[in-house]
Design the sequence.
């Protein structure tokens, strides 16, 4: 049986049409779920009883559960228990500009980035759409507030679960859904080129972030195995096409790893690679984890200044909750 929170509005309309009902009922369902936060189908009072019974035959509205919560300054980290016993995590961050949630898209990850805790544990399965939607609903309920933005940067490679992730975005973006503006939603990928191309044609103004992390294939292949499939020139070509098509600025993520990618020459090569492109670089302070040897770089400012001097837009990501195992995947690792 399908979870009702896995369907976007068009899918719900199709469902109602397929059972000989009017398609506007889809909007009524969205209002119950996402505006009134009512998940008991029996209480959908503007839907007639026989139709409610039919809905209950075809769908459930089961929820994942918050298993554990850790709180730090400006950050809350949630461990969720899924119905099949798997764990995932999400993080709520307080920025100057508002609250954002980082959600997971898979149980584990197969991309195998050497520095990443999430990838140490291989992919078990993709998340269903409702499991992504419910991470947001449960956190908003927990904090009794709405969030401003959502980043799909938790456990998993979102473009390795493309269809469910896009469905999820359609649901949270819909005005009668969770109503989070497309410009406030960011998908981060390690660089799955065919999916970047598909994403370019999407009818939604969602932000794209690329985890680049190195300016040469030699370094990138060492820390990101995906580079052996889609190397830097292939991935940058896809990004250039995306920018040409959408006219949108892309975020280039660059995690600063001591002695790996943080030298002056690395900064210069990165500036050359990105020269003239409509991108900005987000330098990420590495969150060290016990299980992995990589160390945090102390040259972030130097690196940043070189990029600035070469006219590259750059920001340094605010650090959240290293003290509460907020490095992505750590809570789950402890539990598994
Ligand atoms: N698979 C997607 C999204 C999840 S990872 C991607 O690769 O973009 C989200 C970001 O966190 C990526 O840029 C990833 O490289 C980075 N990251 C992973 N482990 C980290 C750590 N321990 N400290 C800081 N950033 C990390």
Sequence:
């Amino acid at each position: 049986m399908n979870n009702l929170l896995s369907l976007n509005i068009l899918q719900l309309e199709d469902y109602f049409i397929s059972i000989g009902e009017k398609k506007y009922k889809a909007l009524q369902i969205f209002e119950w779920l996402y505006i009134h936060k009512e998940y008991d189908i029996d209480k959908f009072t503007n839907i007639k009883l026989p139709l409610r019974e039919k809905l209950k035959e075809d769908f459930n509205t089961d929820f994942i559960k918050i298993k554990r919560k850790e709180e730090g300054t400006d950050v809350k980290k949630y461990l969720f228990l899924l119905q099949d016993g798997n764990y995932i995590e999400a993080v709520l961050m307080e920025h100057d500009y508002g609250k954002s949630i980082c959600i997971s898209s898979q149980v584990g990850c197969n991309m195998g980035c050497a520095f990443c805790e999430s990838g140490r544990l291989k992919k078990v399965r993709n998340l269903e759409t409702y499991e992504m939607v419910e991470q947001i609903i449960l956190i908003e309920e927990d904090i009794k507030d709405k969030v401003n933005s959502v980043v799909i940067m938790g456990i998993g490679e979102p473009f390795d679960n493309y269809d469910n992730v896009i469905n999820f975005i359609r649901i949270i973006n819909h005005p009668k859904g969770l109503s989070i503006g497309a410009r406030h939603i960011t998908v981060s990928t390690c660089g799955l080129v065919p999916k970047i191309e598909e994403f370019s044609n999407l009818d939604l103004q969602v932000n794209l972030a690329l985890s680049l992390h190195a300016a040469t294939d030699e370094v990138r292949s060492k820390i990101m195995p995906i580079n052996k499939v889609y190397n830097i020139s292939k991935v940058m070509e896809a990004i250039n096409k995306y920018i040409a098509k959408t006219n949108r600025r892309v975020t280039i993520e660059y995690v600063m790893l001591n002695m790996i990618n943080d030298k002056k020459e690395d900064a210069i090569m990165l500036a050359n690679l990105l020269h003239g492109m409509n991108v900005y670089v987000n330098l990420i302070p590495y969150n060290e984890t016990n299980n992995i040897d990589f160390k945090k770089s102390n040259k972030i400012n130097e690196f940043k200044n070189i990029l600035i001097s070469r006219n590259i837009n750059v920001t340094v990501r605010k650090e959240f909750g290293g003290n509460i195992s907020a490095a992505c995947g750590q809570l789950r690792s402890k539990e598994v």
The chain has two domains: 2-60, 65-324. Residues 2-60 form a domain with the DNA polymerase; domain 1 fold (CATH 1.10.150.530). The CA atoms of residues 215 and 270 lie 5 Å apart.
